[in-house]
Specification:
12 helices, Rossmann fold, 5-stranded mixed beta sheet, alpha/beta, 2 domains, single chain, Aminopeptidase, 362 residues
Length: 362
């Protein structure tokens, strides 16, 4: 395991006040202008995927990161003021950009078409992460990780990044450099260098369990989620609706409707997770619970999706069966008021089989 020795010096500008201060507080001037660090950091030849360098401000995190990671330390660049976020991520295939944005928990198409400057701090943080992961490096280090966002966004964002990096193909590595200890168990790093003690710990803490409470709700809660739905802000008055709560806070919304002409057959009509909680699987966990409730009532349940992340999840899951693929969408029932058809959009339809039928544990 390589040991890194770093010496940092800054110029000493002597003046009357500097000398006066040194005398008042017994400050050894030459020593205070020179600092050294000697730490162990796992080498690139070792087996690890995610690392973290953590410690209080002034402990030498960034200095050690620059010395050990060099060009792999992500350098933030300005975003264009007059372009959508989707156009500020370089000349890459649109599918790769969408997949990366979604993987870091920024999966709201209505926000993708906005410029970076109007987004929330949490959304900007995820855009920066996406840009870093799109850098085509096999190792990405991110300084000041989660420093500008509130702690809920920081934790959920850390979990989203952890999932994205561990699932990335081709394989890549990620190092978070941060002064916040509260995100470590959410990031689940393989090693942690604590600059407060200079100690390297090899471990992979498990992310805290996220427990959601699912409740039936009134339609009046829909406006809280409507702006983040990628198709339409409308909600049928015939919909049955649920809200998912995390520690008493509403984080996700789901609605179902009857399938016209089919008895005991319903479909998912709306599923929205608030931006601060995207990227860790909450939305599809809520859909699964709602689907199980319908199966228990003797209903079949379908879902038609155009969002790549939803399609990918259902195709991977044994609980869902593909029942239709429409590469150009369909006109649907134009005679129904406020019906939004899928004409011009590629969509895939799935039927929920249930965990028991798929052999998935409860």
């Amino acid at each position: 395991m390589p040991r890194t020795d770093v010496v940092v010096e800054c110029p000493l500008y002597r003046s009357f006040r500097v000398e006066q201060l040194a005398g008042m507080f017994d400050v050894p001037l030459e020593q205070r202008c020179r600092e050294s660090f000697s730490v162990e950091v796992p080498g690139r030849s070792e087996a690890w995927t995610i690392g973290a360098i953590v410690g209080p401000s002034g402990s030498g995190k960034s200095t050690v990161a620059r010395q050990t990671l060099g060009d792999d330390l992500y350098q933030a660049a300005a975003w264009p003021d007059e372009k959508a976020v989707i156009d500020g991520l370089g000349e890459r295939p649109i599918k790769q950009i969408i997949a990366t944005l979604t993987s870091v928990g920024f999966s709201s198409p209505p926000s993708w078409i906005k410029p970076y400057r109007v987004l929330s701090r949490g959304e900007q943080f995820r855009c920066d992460l996406a840009r870093a992961l799109l850098s085509n490096r096999d190792l990405v280090a991110f300084d000041e990780f989660t420093s500008v966002v509130d702690r809920t966004v920081a934790k959920v964002g850390s979990a989203a990044v952890s999932r994205a990096v561990r699932k990335s193909r081709p394989a890549r590595r990620f190092v978070a450099v941060t002064c916040h200890y509260d995100i470590i168990e959410w990031l689940e790093p393989d090693w942690v260098l604590d600059m407060a003690t200079g100690r390297l710990t090899r471990r992979r803490l498990r992310r805290p369990t996220i427990r959601l409470e699912l409740r039936r709700c009134r339609h009046s809660i829909w406006p809280m989620f409507a702006r983040y739905h990628y198709l339409s802000g409308s909600l049928s008055r015939a919909a049955r609706t649920w809200v998912a709560l995390y520690r008493g806070v509403a984080v996700a919304f789901c609605a179902t409707l009857s399938v016209i002409g089919r008895k005991n057959h319903r479909r998912i009509s709306r599923i929205v997770t608030l931006p601060d909680y995207q990227g860790i699987g909450i939305g599809m966990a809520v859909v699964r619970e709602v689907a199980d409730l319908h199966l228990a009532e003797g209903h079949r349940l379908n879902m038609t999706a155009g969002h790549p992340a939803v399609i990918a999840h259902c195709r991977r899951s044994p609980c869902w069966r593909t029942v239709g693929v429409r590469r150009a969408g369909s006109r649907g029932r134009r005679w129904i008021a406020n019906y939004r058809n899928s004409l011009g959009r590629a969509v895939v339809s799935f039927e929920y089989l249930g965990r028991a039928a798929a052999g998935v544990p409860e």
